[in-house]
Amino acid sequence: MALPIRYEVVRRWVDDEDVLEEVLARVVDVDGLFEDVTPAPRGRLVLRGCTAGRLDGDVQLEVQGSPDSELWRLADLVVHAELGGGDLVATATATCLLDSEDLGPSPRFTLSQHSREIGTCVAVEGLPREHRGVAPPVTLIGCDTPELIRPGRPDGERGPYVGLRALDPDGRVVAHAGVALDVVSVSPSAVGEGLFDVVLDQSGDAWHIAERPVPAARGAWRIWMEGVPAQRNLWAPLSSEGRLWWNELAAKARRNRPVAGVHDVDGTYANDECGVHLALSEALVGPGDYLGGVHSITGAYEEWWFVPGITLVWHQPRVALESVPEHFYGLLKYLLRNGVEVLFEPSEPDFGYRLDRGVELGGLVDRWITGWARAAEIDPPDALLDNWHVWADLPGREEERVLTGDALVAEHAEDVALNPVPAWLTVPTRSPDEVSLVVEEAGLVLREPEAFMVRGLFDHPAPKPPDGYEVRVTPGDVIEVVVTCDGEVAASGRMAVVGEDAVPHGVETAPDHRRRGLGGVVMGALAREAVKAGASEGLLFATDDGWHLYRKLGWDTICDVVIASNGKGEA
Description:
Layout: E1 7-15, E2 18-31, E3 42-48, E4 57-64, E5 69-84, E6 87-98, E7 108-113, E8 116-121, E9 123-125, E10 138-143, E11 161-167, E12 173-178, E13 182-188, E14 196-201, H1 218-224, H2 240-250, E15 261-266, H3 273-284, H4 302-305, E16 310-315, H5 317-323, H6 325-337, E17 341-345, H7 349-376, E18 382-383, E19 387-390, E20 399-403, H8 409-418, E21 423-429, H9 432-441, E22 445-446, E23 450-456, E24 469-474, E25 478-485, E26 488-498, E27 501-509, H10 518-532, E28 537-542, H11 544-552, E29 556-565
Helix pairs in contact: 1-2, 2-3, 5-6, 6-7
């Protein structure tokens, strides 16, 4: 009986922009693929002229030279002393992922964390040159043509990728793994006549280490290599990291679009973020399908699967509520804001009430930010899971993250703190004191708070200008009002109309003309023109000074707005 072929040894290269593949051998099984890499010993580093600010945890160091570059992983980096001038004494486990022969003069040292640049260094002293981290040997069990297995040619003609690809019983490629093809030994295999066991040395160049699966991936690989899963919850016994690998394997499988109707979510094992996502995925598209990344079901994917008429019945919601409450809350809030009905079995009345209030607030933020971006004449913000990403491109404020509530404020605050460019975090919230504490603990600098306000426009006060002042109104999608006195601009403002919403921006009065009610004149003229354009309700974020004006004009406060920045690019 022929044994099933579970792996193929492949070489892939590019020829005139065409990707070509060559199967070197077919293999019954593999041993050692999921073993941990033996790390380099922990050592001392000196980072000269470092601009990264707070630095700890796993950090990636790219040394960009001419003509070559190096890539290092600095695992569990700890700073022990700051010497001044940005010089830091630290310890870390340094592993070289990409080596070089010639960096040339004056290389550039760039530090990254969570796939984001966090700073640079003038130099880094103490990088080990003899130990790169060693991967244990990989043994091909039951290999049919070991004589064809050879390492990449020195001229790179058959590069850049060599390794293994795992197959299911139908021959579908499940996953790829980078493996060095340095043959140590070949011996007859006990699994069948004419087959051989081939030991491959993995202690050479470490480029392939980043291309191989970690031990936690073993369970997910094994299940998927039996065929596309047809049962729910096969991922349940896996660790969080193993579940993340499961979703990566699903990305290579088939794609089905959800259909309208009632979908039951089995939340029994949704005890981490990956579990919540996989439970939702299986309910909407099936156990062998892919709904999107664990943290990226929005953007390109939302148009794909947010179809009208979807109802989710989430069974055992208490599992997610007790395990990952803020993530669960943020996800459900986003689903509800996008027209997906969510029911709980058994019911969770207290949580349902909080969710409804959060959805209501998030919907108001959605409406406000669209008009604000238009009035402020900046690029349309990007809608993400529970926030809007704004490309403000302003001094000290290149980027801004506007949350649709405070469910995941700690996570967002830490992310903004690590942003290498000047960035703001804006959080509408009904718990401003708690949110302020969280963002300060993340290292952000609190700015002046604001208030989120709303008002119907049909009866908005429209006071007449004082004697000597004239009002000029320019209608359009963005209404402009200018109040002048003797030809001089005394006050002005803008208001964007989006459907039935109107959002004012930049309402200000020149210093020499204040305390004459000109702010009310501008707002009245804007509101009156917005009603003519079809708007019925106004939304705005008000500073402390603006709040007093708007309150007199009958605007109501929805909630507080906590604003903080990472301090970069500010005097």
